[in-house]
Sequence to fold (134 residues):
Amino acid sequence: MKIYDIYSEKKKKYDKYVILIKVGNFYETYGEDTYLMNNLFDYKIKEVGGVRRVGFPLIAYNKVTDKLKCFKINYLIVEGVNITKKKFNNNNYDKYVRCDDSISVRIDRICEKLMVLKDTSKISIILEAIEEII
Fold:
């Protein structure tokens, strides 16, 4: 069974989990999980044969899983075809899996959120932080 097929099989059952598959001295993930790994860890997304993937060395395992736990993102560790570890939290998967949205889409999303906050005290703190950056 190919690695991507294993990923796809697990993803069907655990769609809101990051699926990390041990491949030699690395862990790899594919598909939409690559966006989450890129957003949280700035790992580069590579496309090989039309399949997006992200990998990191075994030595980074604790750093990655600790951060996933911190951000309350569920994950599975897969070795071969078997799940060797499951981590269940309050699942924030969708919050961090943002795909390759354009800058315009991202700005529009932020503006919508700011408009919701416009009548609260939180908005002044947020605007001050943005104004400092600009």
Notes: The longest helix spans residues 103-117. Helices lie at 3-13, 33-41, 61-70, 93-96, 103-117, 122-133.
